[in-house]
């Protein structure tokens, strides 16, 4: 029993130190980019020895791989997999986009790390490039699936191209993220994304029964 407790305690400490190392790596990338992150500085930033990150991950590339996986998985769980049971395709898309908008307030540090990594992916880091190509393909595919569901259930108007709309939505989201990362105080991400979501919903929504937009009595 004592040996098992010792093992469990070691696992808890190991998992905690791994989380702190990944958090430190994310902070360094968000503050100064991939080149500013070293295994030694990650260990120091996390409050451990300079050698712990090397012992835990083996190389900077492996640490980066773990960081990207942790960020992307958490992003999917927290902002891209909302509770969408029994919703129409259009409402599912609204929930997803709203969760992304809310992430700017709820998880700014995580979002800053995500965008720092996305920007690094266009540079000479092949591991990042392929990972984020897959990330964006998956995000476009998920959005396109919501739109296809909306076409099937009648919540989205006919004639919409799901893949084209998905590409446009992701491109708009990245544009807001770029401006926010470049100058956080220079853009009200919440207001901009609220307007964007309203525009997407208005553009995609099927006409109400009877044809034509609803009109309020004068």
Overview of this structure, please?
There is one protein chain. The chain is mainly alpha-helical. 74% of the residues lie in helices and 0% in strands. It is built from nine helices and no strands. The protein has helices at 2-32, 39-45, 52-57, 60-80, 89-106, 108-120, 126-153, 162-182, 189-204. Helix 1 packs across helix 6, helix 4 (60-80) crosses helix 6 and helix 7 (126-153) packs across helix 8 (162-182). It is elongated. Residues 213-218 have low confidence and may be disordered.
Provide a quick synopsis of the model:
This protein has helices at 2-32, 39-45, 52-57, 60-80, 89-106, 108-120, 126-153, 162-182, 189-204. It is mainly α. Helix 8 packs antiparallel against helix 9 (189-204).
Structural topology:
Elements lengths: L1 H31 L6 H7 L6 H6 L2 H21 L8 H18 L1 H13 L5 H28 L8 H21 L6 H16 L14
Descriptive labels:
disordered C terminus, single chain, mainly alpha, 218 residues, 9 helices
Measure the end-to-end span. 78 Å
Cα Rg: 21 Å
Helix content: over 70%
Poorly predicted ranges: 213-218
Number of strands: 0
Task: Report the major sheet.
Answer: none
């Amino acid at each position: 029993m004592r040996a098992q407790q010792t093992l469990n305690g070691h696992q808890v400490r190991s998992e905690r130190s791994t989380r702190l190392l990944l958090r430190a790596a994310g902070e360094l990338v968000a503050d100064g980019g991939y080149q500013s992150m070293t295994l030694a500085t990650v260990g120091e930033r996390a409050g451990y020895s300079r050698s712990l990150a090397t012992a835990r991950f083996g190389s900077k590339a492996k640490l980066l791989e773990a960081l990207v996986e942790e960020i992307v998985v958490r992003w999917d769980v927290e902002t891209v997999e909302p509770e969408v049971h029994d919703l129409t395709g259009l409402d599912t898309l609204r929930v997803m986009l709203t969760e992304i908008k809310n992430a700017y307030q709820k998880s700014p540090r995580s979002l800053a790390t995500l965008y720092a990594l996305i920007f690094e992916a266009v540079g000479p880091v092949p591991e990042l490039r392929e990972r984020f190509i897959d990330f964006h393909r998956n995000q476009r595919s998920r959005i396109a699936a919501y739109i296809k569901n909306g076409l099937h259930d009648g919540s989205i108007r006919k004639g919409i191209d799901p893949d084209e709309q998905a590409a446009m939505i992701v491109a708009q989201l990245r544009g807001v993220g770029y401006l926010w990362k470049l100058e956080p105080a220079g853009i009200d991400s919440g207001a901009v994304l609220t307007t964007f979501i309203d525009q997407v919903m208005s553009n995609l929504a099927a006409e109400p029964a009877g044809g034509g937009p609803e009109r309020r009595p004068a």
